[in-house]
Amino acid sequence: MRRVFFLSDFGSDSLYTAAVRAVLARKAPDVVVEDVTHSVPPQNVSHAALLLEDFAPYLPGDALLLAVVDPGVGTSRRVIAVRTESLTAVAPDNGLLETFLSGAKAIHEVTSQEIFLKPVSATFHARDVMAPALAYLASGGEMESLGPAVSDPVRLELPRPVVKPGRVDGSVVAVDGFGNVATDIRAEHLFEAFETDDPLPLAGMAVLMVGDVQVYTFARCYAEAPKGVPFALVGSFGRVEISLREGSAAGVLPSTPGTPVTIRVPQATARFYREP
Questions:
Q1: Count of CB atoms within 10 A of residue 54's CB?
Q2: From 4, 23, 118, 247, which residue has the greatest number of CB atoms within 10 Å?
Q3: Each residue of 108-142: pLDDT tens digit?
Q4: Which pLDDT does position 217 carry in this prediction?
Q5: Three-state SS for 263?
Q6: Which of 224, 206, 223, 221 lies closest to 261, judged by CA?
Q7: Across all residues in the chain, what is the average pLDDT?
Q8: How far apart are CA 151 and CA 275, in angstroms?
Q9: How far is Cα 84 from Cα 103, in angstroms, rounded to an integer?
């Protein structure tokens, strides 16, 4: 039994979400639909692409993905189907599938009118175009039958930090439901800059700046951090995040996506830290 993983900005209790799920059930009754999230900030393609980047490693083999954050619905923007070694996805061609494009084995525009619901709404291609296309693929249809091959999908430049010895310059990318402020800095960037992928050795040595606010405390988990003090740790998806134990870091720190985040140690300390 194949699973469709469904992500959107529709809202979990939305009629839009229910309508798409209904079309999938009607067109491909043997698939199981799993909701990734429907709480993507409205029209925020970059945020959704980052969520998919974090989520992708946990998808089962032969998974199906329907991703819909589509501010260009009704315009000339394309709908595409993408196949990788382990995934088949349908989404608007707006960079939402950036995580999967580099490893794509095939990309096709979805143009086959025969599989669309009729009439096709100019404002709801998720229901009338994308869900039928994914259901068609889930039922054994060939991707080549959906439409012509695409060689120039829209690419999205996701935030990436600048890493130097003793310093990482990144930015805020998102705030989760707990108020944790996630950054584009990952554990591997800490290792490259400081020769550690564990933030705890940086305590007392490094300073983390979120905008113009300094954070000095580093921890391995939430329960080990002192209360009332913002602290940094490597979160469950490998990103450095700034948190507040039993509180919301976003409520006390700059947390707008794009806010600069820097982790650095004084140069003398950096040299000392690198000695055997």
A1: 17
A2: 4
A3: 999 999 999 999 999 999 999 999 999 999 999 99
A4: 93
A5: strand
A6: 206
A7: 93
A8: 49
A9: 6
d(CA 66, CA 126): 9
* Residue owning tokens 């209790």: 13
H or E element at residue 58 = none
Record the tokens describing residue 183, joined without a space: 């950054």
Contact between residue 117 and residue 22 where contact means Cβ atoms under 8 Å apart: no
Q: What would the two tokens of residue 204 be? A: 């007392």
CA distance 233 to 231: 7
The answer to whether the beta carbons of residues 81 and 143 sit under 8 Å apart is: yes
Q: Enumerate the β-bridge partners of residue 264.
A: 167, 207
Whether 124 contacts 14, CB under 8 Å: no
Q: Provide mean pLDDT across the span 97-103.
A: 95
Element (H, E) at 35: strand 32-37
What size, in residues, is the chain? 276
Distance CA 164, CA 160 (A): 13
Regarding beta strands 217-218 and 162-164, do their DSSP bridges make them parallel or antiparallel, or are they unpaired?
Answer: unpaired
Question: For the chain, what percent of residues have pLDDT higher than 70?
Answer: 96
Tell me the whole-structure pTM to 2 decimals.
Answer: 0.90
3-state SS string over 215-244? ECEECCCHHHCCCCCCEEEECCCCEEEEEE
Contact indicator for 75, 125 with CB cutoff of 8 Å: no
Give the number of C-alpha atoms closer than 13 A to the C-alpha of residue 266, restricted to the C-beta side.
5
Core vs surface per residue 230-258: b (16+ CB within 10 A) or e: bbbbbbebebbbbbbbeebbbebbbbebe
